[in-house]
Amino acid sequence: MLRSWLRAALGLGCCLLILGAAAPAAEAQVRLKDITAIEGVRGNQLIGYGLVIGLQGTGDQLRNTPFTQQSLAAMLERMGINVADARVQTRNTAAVIVTATLPPFARQGTPIDVQVSSLGDSKSLNGGTLIVTPLMGADGEVYAVAQGPVVVGGFKAEGQAQSISSGVTTQGKVPGGALVEREVPVALNAQSSIRLTLRSPDFTTAVRIEEALNARFGGGSASALDLGTVEMRIPPGFRDRLPNLVAQMESLTVRPETPARVVVDERTGTIIVGAQVRIDPVAITHGNLVIRVTESPIVSQPAPFSNGETTVVPRTQVEVDDQRGRRLAALPRATTLKDVVDGLNAMGLAPRDLISVLAALKASGALHAELQFI
């Protein structure tokens, strides 16, 4: 049954993606670790400024990017080479911004990936090597140092009359290119409780998490503070075994509550219908006015040995189609997701037309769901 109406949706040209296609899927049990996060256990953003060297003539033009020239001169001066009065014309160096995320509980010497993005007018970072770059946090302290070859996913090849490019060549990654130098302390053992934050805040889901934790660790162990936070008091038997407590909490399963929502992407014509969407009985008629303008210019050539001139005579053809053949369609009450999909697909509308119909259904009050455009 599921495959049949999915084929019908694709056959009608409707780019319709369905989430929660049946009642059992909507009531699936999900682990706590997939819908919650522990408050305070998070990554930290790092940023740094550095130089990429070894480029094949695709680096920054030093006359256009003075900061690259200043950085290059400062680096050489630290190595004992004075180029203050010299005119450096290299095209093998590019100034870059280096970013990374310091994961929680990262210890000294732990390698992390870094992202490298060009700051000047470099054409490509392909084949370059990032030299030692300190990565700082929001407090200005250095938490990691990055260095290594830059891996670029795109490429660009050009000649005198043609060029070919694929992807972005002015940014890349250095896998495992940074080593952690400073640790961020997370004192979980000193806390008397753990707070779980929901990735999709909802009162019903928070209460279900509270009930699952109390059923596993005893009544009164957990309490829902609001729609996005559940506080778990550490039982006496887990004071010195906090990782074991967190592991048991994350393995518990609950049924998250999903709101009635229809998500529409107008750029691609994608429509996502939630499992809780309902539609009241309604009659719909929809038609489009299509105007086609075609330009077919004709070249008027003068007769041989005449004094005439060759001219271009414009020729325009206009076609109008108001699609009056549309019928009034009655959409019955839809109490399940399958009814909603079958009713919308039975109208035989293109994705753009279907988006307009959904917006009109929401305005009329017949669509009982949140309509969200992205």
UniProtKB/TrEMBL annotation:
- InterPro entries linked: Flag_FlgI
Protein species of origin: Teichococcus vastitatis
**Recorded family membership:** Belongs to the FlgI family.
Q: Which HAMAP family match?
A: FlgI (MF_00416)
The identity of this protein, by name, is Flagellar P-ring protein
Alphabetized UniProt keyword annotations: Bacterial flagellum, Cell projection, Cilium, Flagellum, Periplasm, Signal
> Span of the secretion signal?
1-25
Q: Which domain of life is it from?
A: Bacteria
Q: Which residues form a coiled coil?
A: none
What is the protein's quaternary organization?
The basal body constitutes a major portion of the flagellar organelle and consists of four rings (L,P,S, and M) mounted on a central rod.
Q: Describe the function of this protein.
A: Assembles around the rod to form the L-ring and probably protects the motor/basal body from shearing forces during rotation.
Q: State if Chaperone is listed as a keyword.
A: no
| Subcellular location(s) of the protein | Bacterial flagellum basal body
Q: What is its main location?
A: other
